[in-house]
Structure formats: C-alpha cells, structure tokens
Design a protein that fits this description.
The two termini are 34 Å apart. Helix 1 packs across helix 3. The strands form three sheets. This protein has an eight-stranded parallel beta barrel with strand order 1-2-3-4-9-10-11-13, surrounded by seven helices. It has a two-stranded antiparallel ribbon with strand order 5-6. It is 36% helix and 16% strand. Strand 3, helix 4 and strand 4 form a beta-alpha-beta unit. It is of the alpha/beta class. The protein has twelve helices and 13 strands.
Length: 379
Amino acid sequence: MKSEKQLKIGVILEGVGWSYSAWRHPNMPANASESADFYVKTAKRAEEGKFDMVFLADVSHIGPGNIPHFLSMFEGVTILSALSMATSHIGLAATIATSYADPFTVARQMASLDKISNGRAAWNAVTSNPGGLANYSRRHLSKDDLYPLNKEFIEIVEGLWDSYEDDAFIRDKESGIFLNPRKMHQLNYRGKYFSVDGPLNISRSPQGRPVIFQAGTSEAFMNIASKHAEGVFINGDDYNYAKQFSEELRRRAVLAGRAPEDLLIMPSQHIIVGRTETEANEKFLGLQKLSPPGYRTPKPTFFGSAQSVADRIEHWHQTGAMDVLLLRQELPSGIDDFIDLVVPILQEKGIFRREYESRTLRGNLGLPFPENRYTKDKA
C-alpha cells in the first residue's frame, strides 16, 4: 500500500537518553531528564524543523537497575504545559497509563492541555507494567484486568470529551446567557471498573479533542486500537514486521467502520546520521565507547549518510510501513543532525512539509475533526 499522505515526524523527549550510558557523553547535560531548559530547547528546535510533535514516555514502577532517565524525570502533562508556552505549532503528546490513573482526571488534564496549547495535545493511552499497580492502590488487579480496564477507561474519556457540543457556551453578556444547557451532556457510564456520571467541566478544544495514541502488540490491544487509536507506536527494528503489522491493524480499523488512513503507524527509530557513512560510523563508535564493559550498542536501523537515511525513510513511508517517524535521541547532536542533514533531503523529495499546514496537531497529522457524538445523533 503506497502512502498518499506526507511523512510526519515526531521526537521522543527522553532527557539523558534511552540507554545506560548516553548521559556520560561530554555534550549531554547530566541532569537533562529534569531540566526544563533542556526540554524547552529541544522542543523549540524540533518546531524549527517542522516536526509534528514531541512525545513523552512514562514509567511508574522503577528500581536502581533502570536506565538513568527513568530514575528522575518529569511528569508528562506538567512539563508539556510548560512547553506549550514556549512553542506555537508542535504537538504535545503525554503518556498516562490507564492501569493507574483515573479517567475523569485524565480527561480533564488532557482537555486542559489541549485548551492551553490551542489544540496541540495528544494522549498515549497505554496499559503499562503491572508492577506499578502497587503504587496506585490497585494490587487487587491482575494482568488480565489491564486491557478490559483500558477499554473502559478510553470509552469514558472519549465520552467526557463530548460533554459539551462545540457551540454550547454562548457567553452573551447582554442577555446574561452563559451556557445552552441542552448542549451539555452527562455520560452516566457504568462498567466493571469505573462508574462515571459526568459531565466534564471544560469545553471542547479547537481540534475537537486530543489525539489518542496507543502502543502494544497483543490481540486484545489490536481490538481496542482498531476502534479508538488514531496513532499506534510500534517497534521499528524490522521493516517486514512493521509492514505486516500496519496492514493488519488497518484491516481491523476498516472492519470497525473507520478509514484506514485515519490510523497512523508510528515506528520509533534511533537514528545516527552523518554527511557521509564514515562520519556516521565515527559518531556511532564514539557512543559505543561510553557503554559499560560487555555491552554493545545495537546498530540503528536508520544509520549512515543523510542521503541513505532519507532514502530508507522514503521507502518505509511510501510502502505503508510508516506514517509517522518517531526519533529517539541517543547522541546529543542527534536531532540537530537530522534537522540539518536529513530534513532538507526529505523536503526536496516532496514527502515532508516546509511549513505547518495547521495550528492544531490533528490538522498537521491529517486526521479528521471528531464530530461530537450528540451533534451527530441530531443529524
């Protein structure tokens, strides 16, 4: 399946990096994972490169054996709210695990971020590691509960985001009418895990509601994602796997009554790029020297000269294995290298933007505006 949409690009903000040793690089601030200045600088640079979004992963169950980034890091919605004030176009994606959180609180948090950023928020609705249940008074739940709970959670959040029709708030000072009460709706959701009345106490955003991302590989995950996810994170190590997985997920989305192009496939990639193959290899070897004895840094899938990396990206995109390229930065110069060396080639190829198409994340990703369910019922 050849993609007719332009390539989209995001960057995963991971502070000191997704490894045990990247923090030791002389150009990496050792406190990057808890430095607001570092996050602001990276987000602004990504926006200069016309990236679609910055994305934050999250963990809630750690120990001394975790990578340094996980040991001390920002909570997602908090830092993204700060980044929304320092940027104007780039999307802001937060991970909040349904295994631990409360659906009304998440609906309110994400809707607030969406309003604060003028329609640039996204929620990565993962199930996460069962080990974290002990931190959230949910020891009584088992691994088998996580996906059924995830399904209820997403249904509730989506329902709460439709609490108000788009024109519910009149705010007419002369007449004294603030709200049309007929356009405010209770949810009255009753499930196995949650009971939520609603409505939510915040109006809809310029993009209707935050974009929903998900991640996983199981059968249960695919059944939920095909109905609710607008973007799916996948492992980017294997092209054939990425292509087959994306085809199957899109097939299920069609069976659920959706357009296949409204579900974006988003493989994450560690990218090391140079002007030449030799320069890229030197950067890779420099990173490898920082690794602990006996540990070998895997060779990135997208590795080499700017031209060869751009060609590989084009192949993945044009054949339907990738809609959104998610960059992971191990090398401190990784994002700058990509923007300076690869982005101009992708723009010359005509597969990546030169300017933003929209001020909302949904608009830039080419996703449809979600009509409020109550407005749809009246049509």
